[in-house]
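sorry for the late reply, my laptop died twice this morning and i had to redo everyting from scratch. anyway the thing you sent over, i finally got around to it. pasting the sequence first so we're on the same page, its 143 residues, then the predicted structure underneath. double check i copied it right bc i was rushing
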Amino acid sequence: MNENKTFVDTNVIVYSYDSTAGEKHSKAKKIMTDLWRSGGGLVSTQVLQELYVTLTRKIPRPLKSAEAGEIIEDMLTWDIVVNDGESILQAISLETREKVSFWDALVVVAAMRGGAETLLSEDLPAGRTLEGVRVLNPFLSSE
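ok and here's the structure:
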C-alpha cells in the first residue's frame, strides 16, 4: 500500500455521489477527486458494502444497482482492507475501550490495519486519535 493513506468512511463517499447533499456534496466530491488523483485513498470491504446499500436504498435519489456496482468496481482500484477474524476481535476490544459503536470500531481497525494516517468520517469523534489514526470530520469548518 502507498504511503500517506487516508481512510474514507462510507458517509464521505456517499455525499460525493448524492447531489441532494448540498455543501457536503461539494466538499466530499473535492475530497474524492483529490484522493483519486493522489492515489492516497483507502477503504475496507465494510465501507464498500455499506456504500452499495446506501447508494441504492437510503439516499433521496437512489442509484440503480448497475450504477452503484460500477462505482464499487471503480473503488476496487483503491487499496482495500479486508476485514478478517482478527479485525473483528480488535473492533470488539476498541468498542469497549473507547465507547464507540462496533461498526465504527471496525472502520477504525481497518484504517489502522491499512496504514492510514487520517480517517475521514462524519460519525466518529473528530479530532481524536484512535489506534494511531487521527479522525477528521471534513464537514466541520475547523477541520
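Residues 23-38 form the longest helix (16 residues).
thats about all i looked at so far, will dig more tmrw
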